[in-house]
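Worked problem 6 (solution included).
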Amino acid sequence: MMYDYWGQGSRNGGGSDVWGFILMLFMMALIIVGVIALVRYLGRDSGRRQKGGAALDLLEKRYAQGEIDKKEFEEKRQVLSE
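Solution. The predicted structure is:
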């Protein structure tokens, strides 16, 4: 008698191999979705830091060019650091 891979017609709990395979696919899909969610979350956080850095660079440039005075520079820098 040949081994039936999918467990159909076997005497010892036929079909259990199919459920194991489905469970394995489900677990793999769950891991992949988790990794994608983690990467998106971390990417969004670093994007926020870059925006704050760009705003601070622009503020420093305006101060260096004399467009704003020291008091205004300090106030805006404090707001950006919050």
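Discussion: Residues 16-64 form the longest helix (49 residues).
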